[in-house]
Structure of Nucleoside diphosphate kinase regulator:
Amino acid sequence: MPATPNIVVSRQDAARLEALLESAGSEGDVARALAAELDRAEYREHGDMPDGVVMMGSHVRCIDETTGEQHALTLVYPPEANFAEGRVSILAPVGAALLGLSVGQTIQWPLPGGRTTRLTVAAVAND
């Protein structure tokens, strides 16, 4: 398995995500994987986040390296998720995988059913 890329997460996002995981009981593989990502992240204040980093609310264009497909999505909290509108929950495998990555970084991530995918961040827009 390739080395896991370094990730940067805002302290504000981390606090909200930790509360979300606590209220959800950290049940399920994705919740556990997200908790592990938060444990290894570098934290910065929201205003000190580098350009091109995937944060909550980011509009992301990524490439699934296993299929070559490009995806455009917005990373959101579970109540805001709507797959048809491209709003992907942080508790979905793709959402948890992308958090904290920068443009150009690739991560290998487990999917349901024992499959894995490799996602590369192509572009990030933060409002």
In short: The chain is about 25% helix and 30% strand. The chain has a mean pLDDT of 90. The helical segments are 11-24, 29-40, 93-98. The chain has one domain: 8-125.
